[in-house]
Amino acid sequence: MTRKQPPAPxxxxxxxxxxxKTADDVFAYFEAFTNLERGLFRPRDYRLERMERxxxxxxxxxxxxxTVHLAGSKGKGSTACYVAAGIAARMPRVGLYCSPHVNDxxxxxxxxxxxxxxxxxxxxxxxxxxxxxxxxxxGMQDSxxxxxxxxxxxxxxLVFREVKASAQVLETGLGGRLDAxxxxxxxxxxxxxxxxxxxxYLGTRLTGIAREKAGILKTGxxxxxxxxxxxxxxxxxxxxxxxxxxxxxxxxxxGIRRPVLSAAGTEFDFRSPSGDRIHARLKMLGExxxxxxxxxxxxxxFLFPAETFDDLLSSIANAGLPGRMELVRFRTDPxxxxxxxxxxxxxxxxxxxxxxxxxxxxxxxxxFGCVSGKNHGAxxxxxxxxxxxxxxxxPGTFKKSDPEAVYAAFSNNAVRASLALHPRLALEExxxxxxxxxxxxxxxxxxEIRKLCIExxxxxxxxxxxxxxxxxxxxxxxxxxxxxxxx
Length: 487
Hints:
Blueprint: H1 16-19, H2 23-31, H3 49-57, E1 66-71, H4 76-88, E2 94-97, E3 109-111, E4 114-115, H5 118-137, H6 148-162, E5 167-171, E6 188-191, H7 199-202, H8 206-213, E7 223-225, H9 230-242, E8 247-249, E9 257-262, E10 265-271, E11 277-282, H10 287-303, H11 309-314, E12 326-330, E13 333-340, H12 346-360, E14 364-368, H13 376-386, E15 387-392, H14 403-411, E16 416-419, H15 423-430, E17 437-440, H16 443-455, E18 471-472
Parallel strand pairs: 1-5, 1-6, 2-5, 6-7, 7-8, 12-18, 13-17, 14-15, 14-17, 15-16
Antiparallel strand pairs: 2-3, 3-4, 9-10, 10-11, 12-13
Helix pairs in contact: 2-5, 4-10, 5-6, 8-9, 12-13
């Protein structure tokens, strides 16, 4: 496919090569635009015309490869990672676009589970920079410029085209119908479990949210649907029927039996469509991950019908994402376990607590931090039932939070609670006793703690999504593995 060259930059802002020298420069430049994730987004700007023009002006980089598109409230990232890992075992150069990232924007745009090549990110970023400069020179108002998420989505498509990816797996942002990814031409769509979320954009009714998510369904394109609440399921199936989308699997016969969680991962049994009982092992933890994996396996079986479920399973067993039930172990102190998960709703916290109890045992210290607008009271009530100790902290400054109010919610429960506003202090306090540690409440909280672990050489910063499972601290020959953070 011929690459269309965008216009050259127009005066006064610096040449692309001078301004954007690294991938970090590219991502910092994108962050300067109106960003939905910061809450700066205006609902009236939530439309596809701008993204459609972007893609057209760059010669439609979203087309020309096998495409799997996912929407939902929970499990999108993990399911997308499983699907991408399965495809990558059978096709060359598979692009995965997912969000949010935990520590690095590079996590969002990967090729075969690893960060896209730095020179490619920079080159494509410079093309976008030149294009935006030209649009401004032509009189485009700032309010009509792309959002951060739109620019990241465009960058992903440009990168995938540049590396000649044979396939792409795309996760929507918060919606579906009007999401920037929804201009793709999918070969298969997946709908993961839907909950009430982002009500300021998607509405308050679950069926309405389901309609927005199911907006990714395209006429005649097959769909796999995870287990859903009855009203949500009927809404999705109605839309699928209206659009003549074959429903390959609708989650009614999940068939998961005997899930066992341990520090080694998750083991469970399930039945294939032919009725065969299959024993599965995953590096990722939790019954939720078993459900995500079964959804992904049904999708992969459609894409590769000659493959057995056992063969498909072997290619996703080691896949995982940072901050999604990520277990961190210290080689120099095997008794020290730290579990990172971005759970931030009462339902996901409930399932996380059940999983954490199986993996970490009792007497768990919890580091908790959530952004404003979340149901921190319900989450505090659930966590307090199992935790021996809770340390409330601030989940960074990217979004507004009220740690004092969250601390008050925990203080109303019969659990030992403390307030440590700086994440570094929270982690140091948690590591001052031998209890296993659980970090949750938001991806922003997980990001803060994970960043500190990277600084302390506890976690390797290398992005390797398809081989990721548990993360081990480096031993003494590779660099010190410390339980006390550097000052």
